Amino acid sequence: MDYAKQKAELMKEKTRLEEILSDTNGRIDKWFKIGEKTFNLVRYATYWFNNGSPEEKAQILKSLGSNLILKDKKLVIQLKTPFIEIGNIVNKVPEAKAGFEPKKNGLNEAKLHEFFSKNPIVLPAMHKVRTWLDGCILDDSDPNEYNIPDFGQKSDQICPEMVEHG
Questions:
Q1: CA distance 20 to 12
Q2: How far apart are CA 127 and CA 51, in angstroms?
Q3: 149 exposure class (CB count in 10 Å sphere: 0-12, 13-18, 19+)
Q4: Cα-atom radius of gyration of the chain, to the nearest Å?
Q5: Pairing assessment for the beta strands 65-71 and 74-79 based on DSSP bridges
Q6: Can you give the residue range of the structural domain that contains 112?
Q7: What's the pLDDT band for 11 if we cut at 50, 70, 90?
Q8: Could you give the number of structural domains in the chain?
């Protein structure tokens, strides 16, 4: 490859990286919005699936993953990365269930952070979730396009018992 062509490619890459760096606040806002909606969905999905409208139930299923298949009268879903990893954490680390309800279990944020920051199951799972979120924010799409319903505020108003314990 000749010098001019290589320089042009490197300059193009430099410009792309500068654009990414200059939009740090926008990326952080997008990352936070997607992450918050994902965790609110985990927190409230059962409530809304049991008490919601048919449209809300369909929205929940659509947001959890893709390739919905009915097999032996059971629904099989190919889950999105965050839901797979959260499920793995909850199934393999019994203490993690307390993380979703710290007040109910007498734990504080510092104790949870200390436990999770050293756990060999939680660390790689959270890395996969962060990588998935980074992929979401590096493309130019709107966070609402990830089909994750925002049940958080609505749920806080309708089911305050979950807010008190969650």
A1: 13
A2: 33
A3: buried
A4: 20
A5: antiparallel
A6: 27-165
A7: very high
A8: 1
Residue 11 domain flag: no
Q: What pLDDT band is residue 77 in, cutting at 50, 70 and 90? A: confident
The predicted structure's pLDDT at residue 165: 44
Tokens for 48, please give them: 């809304």
CA angle, corner 113, sides to 108 and 95, nearest 5? 75
* Tokens encoding 76: 């099989």
How far apart CA 120 and CA 53 sit, in angstroms, is: 39
Give the three-class secondary structure for 85. helix
Residue 125 lies in a domain: yes
Q: Is residue 12 part of a domain?
A: no
pTM for the model stands at 0.57
Residues written for the chain = 166
Residues 49 and 45: their CA atoms lie apart, in Å, by 6
Per-residue model confidence as pLDDT tens digits over 58-73: 888 888 888 888 889 8
H/E element holding 145? Answer: none
Q: Is residue 152 part of a domain?
A: yes
CB 47 within 8 A of CB 155: yes
